[in-house]
Specification:
- The protein has a 9-stranded mixed β-sheet with strand order 13-10-14-15-23-22-21-18-19, sandwiched between helices. The chain has a 7-stranded parallel β-sheet with strand order 5-2-6-1-7-8-9, sandwiched between helices. A 3-stranded mixed β-sheet has the order 16-17-20.
- By secondary structure, the protein is α/β, with parallel strands linked by helices.
- The longest helix has 19 residues.
- A hairpin with a 5-residue loop joins strand 22 and strand 23.
- The protein has 19 helices and 23 strands.
- The protein starts with a strand and ends with a helix.
- The chain has 2 domains: 239 residues, P-loop containing nucleotide triphosphate hydrolases (Rossmann fold), CATH 3.40.50.300; 198 residues, 3-Layer(aba) Sandwich (Rossmann fold).
- Bound molecules: glutamine.
- Glutamine (GLN) binds next to strand 19.
Length: 537
């Protein structure tokens, strides 16, 4: 039977529970254990696919095609393991399956109740996910903050599971300790309240990860230990740091891995974080920089810039750049600006490489097309992702093939739909079946020899993750190819274009799939590597 480690948050959201969970996972894996991680999101949505990225952050896609929370991406990156459907739960998902079972008479005529039937469903999903990969440790991150109404049923599941297996459950509270400017002193009271609230749900934290702008000092550690009923050595300092990849190393400085083992009554074991450590050294020491611009639209929220919407792309750029011993300097460029004032697109000249990422709807489309045209003509390394590929094809059709009305059916009723809706999608859209119905997850792609794509992948058959409803219209393939657009990747089952590239350009490549989802810190994605290599030149 696996050991279960629950991770919950205290005081406020956004303090890095996901990275903390992923880092604990990395540490345990480096000690030779089999680890998996589960994300619980308390919202009613069945998955993240229907949510606005500005509100929720990136929608991550797994191999088996679940549109889920970006934290699953953190788990995959830190654990270097694929995570599947069973490891993602939302309130909506849990209720949906309980209700479906009730409708199938699977509760044998019994009255189905919120407690214990909902927590029981949560528990059975956790067990199933652990069993599937024969995990030694299952990490379960509970979204939200202790004390809110939404995640109570999940905490109830923890309490019930602990009753069944008192020795196999650990609760880690990631809490925040503010240092108010006026006081200049770190305050522990909010964390004390968080622990009280957790206590009232029947749970006592075993370990407290103390997130703060600065490291925790001895008096504060003692205070938390005393007031929160946690051993001194189980109060772990987790100060702000520049790179998330440093978190496992910092936790290990506090001996977190072996603390966890000892709490489960297991023997201490050394961690092997050598490779990870040298990655962190590169990140901290390199002076070499590459300037990458991302032309997008999901990063403005009021007066703040939200990076979460493109988190996998950012991380993929970082991984590839680190592998060349350099660091990226990423700038957010607003597609809409190029629409309003065409001249401003010239600013792209000051970048080493430009990415046009995925997206939906027609806001900012023409601006993105202007940016792509500029990159093509000025020979600036360019990488287009999903919508980025569709727009690169439209740009090429309009300005190289002379098809003036070239567009996508997603945003126009054009007579030249270079990008068209996939036939099976037409029905779904008509019936308003939007949730979880795109072309999702991993599909094969055959790579043509003697292309830049082949140079990057060094193999003829690959598989990448998708999330789209529209595709390159095969009726226009001949003219596009004749005018010099290389279709270097094709899905063999359905004959869909997956990669386009230009041979007479230092680097101009775009993919219908999302390579960013498969990039890992120590195994950067080949296409991102090729893009960064060209950008460094
Ligand atoms: N909106 C486009 C489609 O659905 C592209 C999707 C994306 O960029 N992920 O095909």
């Amino acid at each position: 039977m696996p050991k279960y480690i629950f991770v919950g948050g205290g005081v406020m959201s956004g303090i890095g529970k996901g990275v903390a969970t992923a880092s604990i996972g990395r540490i345990l894996k480096s000690k030779g254990f089999r680890v998996t991680a589960i994300k619980i999101d308390p919202y009613i949505n069945v998955d993240a696919g229907t949510m606005n990225p500005v509100e929720h952050g990136e929608v991550f896609v797994t191999e088996d095609g679940v549109e889920c929370d970006q934290d699953i991406g953190n788990y995959e990156r830190f654990l270097d393991e694929n995570i599947f459907t069973d490891n993602y739960m939302t309130t909506g998902r849990v209720y949906q399956s309980v209700i479906n079972r009730e409708r199938n008479l699977e509760y044998n005529g019994k009255c189905v109740e919120v407690v214990p039937d909902i927590p029981n469903e949560v528990i059975s999903r956790i067990k199933k996910a652990g069993k599937k990969v024969k995990a030694d440790f299952v990490l379960i991150e509970i979204g939200g903050t202790v004390g809110e109404y939404q995640n109570l049923l999940f905490l109830e599941a923890v309490r019930m599971l602990k009753l069944q297996y008192p020795k196999d459950i650990l609760f880690v509270l990631v809490s925040y300790l503010p240092v108010p400017k006026l006081l200049g002193e770190m305050k522990t009271k909010p964390t004390q309240y968080a622990v009280r609230t957790l206590n009232s749900a029947g749970i006592q934290p075993d370990i407290i990860l103390a997130r703060a702008s600065v490291p925790l000092d001895e008096p504060r550690k003692r205070k938390i230990s005393n007031f929160c009923n946690v051993l001194l050595e189980d109060v772990i300092s987790a100060p702000d740091i520049k790179s998330i990849y440093e978190v496992p190393i910092n936790f290990e400085k506090e001996n977190l891995g072996n603390r966890i083992l000892r709490k489960f009554g297991l023997k201490s074991k050394p961690s092997d974080l050598k490779e990870w450590g040298s990655l962190v050294k590169t990140i901290k020491n390199t002076k070499k920089k590459v300037k990458i611009g991302i032309v997008g639209k999901y990063f403005e929220t009021g007066k703040f810039t939200l990076m979460d919407s493109y988190i996998s792309i950012i991380e993929a750029v970082k991984h590839a750049t680190y592998s060349f011993g350099a660091k990226p300097e990423i700038t957010w460029l607003s597609a809409e600006k190029y629409e309003k004032d065409a001249k401003t697109v010239k600013e792209l000249k000051s970048f080493n490489g430009i990415i046009v990422p995925g997206g939906f709807g027609n806001r900012g489309i023409e601006g993105k097309i202007k940016a792509i045209e500029f990159c093509r003509k000025q020979k600036i390394p360019f990488l287009g992702l999903c919508l980025g590929m569709q727009l690169a094809t439209i740009e090429f059709a309009r300005h190289v093939c002379g098809i003036k009305n070239a567009s996508s059916r997603e945003f126009s009723k054009t007579c030249d739909p270079i990008i068209d809706v996939m036939p099976e999608q037409k029905v779904l859209l008509k019936e308003k079946k939007y949730g979880g119905t795109m072309r999702l997850g991993a599909y094969d792609c055959e790579i043509k020899s003697k292309t830049k794509s082949f140079e990057a992948y060094r193999k003829n058959m690959i598989s990448e993750r998708h999330r789209h409803r529209y595709e390159l219209n095969n009726d226009y393939r001949e003219i596009l190819e004749k005018k010099g657009l290389t279709m270097s990747g094709i899905n063999p089952q359905k004959d869909l274009v997956e990669i386009i590239e230009l041979s007479n350009h230092p680097f101009f490549m775009a993919t219908q799939f999302h390579p960013e989802f498969k990039s890992r810190p120590l195994r950067p994605h080949p296409l991102f590597k090729a893009f960064i290599k060209a950008s460094l030149k």
